[in-house]
Specification:
Layout: H1 2-30, E1 38-42, H2 49-63, E2 71-75, H3 82-88, E3 97-101, H4 104-110, E4 121-130, E5 133-137, H5 145-154, E6 160-163, H6 169-180, E7 189-192, H7 196-204, E8 210-213, H8 219-224, E9 227-232, E10 259-266, H9 271-285, H10 288-297, E11 300-304, H11 306-327
Parallel strand pairs: 1-2, 1-3, 6-7, 6-8
Antiparallel strand pairs: 3-10, 4-10, 4-11, 5-8, 5-9
Length: 332
C-alpha cells in the first residue's frame, strides 16, 4: 500500500513537474528577445529617405529600450534593392535581421529582375505610406494634372518624365493618369536617373518636362520658387509645406497611389520572433518622436501587424500584376 501511495505521489509529482515545465517552456517561447546585435537592412546608400527611416528607428529603439540589444543600420545598395533582400535571406529564421520592404519587393520579380518576392520573406509590419508628386519648372506651361493628361492625349511622346527607376509607384502614377486620358501607357516617355536630385536638376535645366518623386523631396524647391508641383497621389491634401499641392482626386481623377513602407524578417521566422517584432513596431507607431518624423516628411502612419501585412502584400501583387501588364513590363 505504501509503495502504491509512493508510486501515485511520484506519478503526480512527475505530471505536475512536466506541466510546470511545459508552461514555463511555452512562456519562454512567447517571450523571445534578441540575444545579440540587431541589423536593420536597407537597400540604399546613406542619406536617402530609406536611410533616414532606418536611423530614426535605430535611435528610438535604443533610447526607449524597445529593443534590449544594440541596433545597427546596414546599407546594402544595388540591384534595385534586391541586394538587401538577398543579404536578409542569408540569415534564414534569424530574428536579429530585419529589412525595409516596399513595392519593389513585388515588382522586381514581376519584371524578372530578381527571384525574391513576398514568399521569400516573413512579413512583420506595415509602417507608413508615402505618395507621389509631379514637379515641373516654374515657367512650364503645364500647370495642372489636366494639362499633363491633355498633352499626353494629343501626343504620348510630347512629355518626357524623369524618375529614378522603372516599375515603381512613380511610373504607375503616370500610367494611371495616361489611362484616364485614354492613352496607352506603353507609349509614355520615361527617362531614368540615378537619384531624385539628378532628375530635379534635369527638369530645372529643361532636359525633361516633368520629374516624378516623393512630395517631401520638393519642399525646399517650393520655398525657393524654382519648381511648381502639379499634383500629389494622396487621398487628401498633405500638411505643412506641401498643403498647397492639389490631389489628383481634387482635379477630377479618381487616382490614389501609395508608396508603402514596411519591415520583414528572413524566411522561416517563427511565431515568437514575429510576435516580439510586432510588439516593437506597434509601440514605435505610437511613439511621439516617430510620429513627428512621419509628419515632417508627409508620411502617413498606417501600422499593420504581420497577418494584416501579409494579406496586404498578396493583394498588392495582384493589383501590380495587372498594372505591369498594361505597362508592358510584366515578364512572361
Amino acid at each position: 500500500m505504501e509503495m502504491m501511495k509512493s508510486g501515485i505521489a511520484g506519478s503526480l509529482f512527475a505530471a505536475v513537474g512536466m506541466s510546470v515545465w511545459a508552461i514555463a517552456g511555452g512562456a519562454l517561447a512567447q517571450s523571445w528577445q534578441p540575444q545579440t546585435n540587431v541589423e536593420i537592412i536597407i537597400g540604399s546608400s546613406p542619406g536617402g529617405s530609406f536611410d533616414i527611416t532606418a536611423r530614426a528607428m535605430q535611435r528610438i529603439f535604443e533610447t526607449t529600450k524597445l529593443v534590449n540589444q544594440s541596433v545597427t543600420v546596414v546599407n546594402k545598395p544595388g540591384g534595385n534593392n534586391s541586394v538587401s533582400w538577398v543579404y536578409l535571406n542569408g540569415h534564414a529564421a534569424d530574428g536579429h535581421y530585419l529589412a525595409l520592404v516596399f513595392p519593389t519587393l513585388i515588382t522586381n520579380k514581376l519584371m524578372g529582375r530578381n527571384p525574391i518576392s513576398i514568399e521569400d520573406v516573413t512579413p512583420i509590419a506595415h509602417l507608413y505610406s508615402d505618395y507621389i508628386a509631379f514637379g515641373v519648372r516654374a515657367d512650364s506651361p503645364l500647370k495642372t494634372a489636366k494639362d499633363v493628361a491633355e498633352a499626353l492625349r494629343k501626343d504620348p511622346q510630347s512629355i518626357s518624365m524623369g524618375l529614378t527607376a522603372v516599375g515603381t509607384a512613380h511610373q504607375i502614377t503616370a500610367a494611371r493618369l495616361a489611362k484616364a486620358a485614354g492613352v496607352d501607357a506603353k507609349q509614355l516617355k520615361f527617362v531614368v536617373f540615378k537619384g531624385a536630385g539628378d532628375a530635379k536638376t534635369a527638369v530645372l535645366g529643361g532636359h525633361v518636362d516633368v520629374v516624378i518623386s516623393a512630395p517631401a523631396s520638393f519642399a525646399g524647391d517650393l520655398d525657393a520658387g524654382k519648381l511648381r508641383v502639379l499634383l500629389v497621389s494622396s487621398p487628401k491634401r498633405m500638411g505643412g509645406a506641401l498643403a498647397g499641392i492639389p490631389t489628383l482626386k481634387e482635379q477630377g481623377y479618381d487616382i490614389v497611389v501609395t508608396n508603402w513602407r514596411g519591415f520583414a524578417g528572413p524566411k522561416g521566422l517563427d511565431a515568437p520572433k514575429v510576435a516580439f517584432w510586432e510588439g516593437v513596431f506597434e509601440k514605435l507607431s505610437q511613439n511621439e518622436e516617430w510620429n513627428k518624423i512621419l509628419q515632417k516628411y508627409g508620411w502617413e502612419n498606417e501600422y499593420m501587424n504581420s497577418r494584416e501585412f501579409g494579406k496586404f502584400l498578396a493583394s498588392q501583387r495582384e493589383e501590380l500584376q495587372a498594372e505591369f501588364s498594361a505597362l508592358g513590363l510584366l515578364k512572361k
